[in-house]
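Deliverable D5.2: sample structural annotation.
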Amino acid sequence: MSEKMPENQTECAISGEPDRTRRRLFLGAVGGTAMASLGGFHIAELALAKSDSEAVSNLARWGLLIDSAKCATDCDACVSGCNTEHNLEDMGRPETDAQWIRKLDLSDQQTGHVSSLPMMCQHCESPPCVDVCPTGASFKRDDGIVMVDKHTCIGCRYCVMACPYKARSFIHETLSNQKSYSPRGKGTVESCNLCVHRIDEDRQPACVEACNTDGKGAMIFGDLNDMDSDISIASSSKPSRQIREDLGLNTGVRYQNL
């Protein structure tokens, strides 16, 4: 999803320190203005409360556990469920169409064994996308869900380049038939938010629901901080791993039998 920078632009970015500094100051000014007029309010609104009586807190950390042994290569229930939930339309441009979740097939070169796994935003404890965002549009809720505030996203795509999982999409086309609970917009970046609107209503993410209904039951959603939750019990029964463990991001999405 990230675009390759032209060679002359790369050289300028390396050698042109004054230009780079001015650009940072400009983006900071734009971000500050946007935050003051729109973003601060909307980020707070999205991040604060599940309801008037129950606030989002770090007592819970939401995550996914995916068993690749149960994930069939020919099954795309999770992808279809996500696309339907958020109206991610096929615009006929595979290279730029939004994908909040995609299926990957991993082949063991020694044994030839093929593992299939869903790949989406990994909801890192220390998300690189949040670190590089100049406006604060990319942020993490107290309960671990990484989100994008479309009101302050300026479409710079720094987060797209920073994400090691290629989990973010940039919207190139004008959109229609949007869902009220999942606002999207041309010129902004988006990614999986674990169906936060469902979580705040104590419901399962659409991908998990679809996997359990139409797929093989390979996905478990729950509170990683609750030792009695289904996801914690399943995690303790057998080892799980992160994708790119070497980065030390402490992801909220883990995989078993991978």
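Annotation notes: The first helix runs from residue 7 to 15. The chain has one domain: 7-256.
The annotation will be released with the project's public dataset once the embargo ends.
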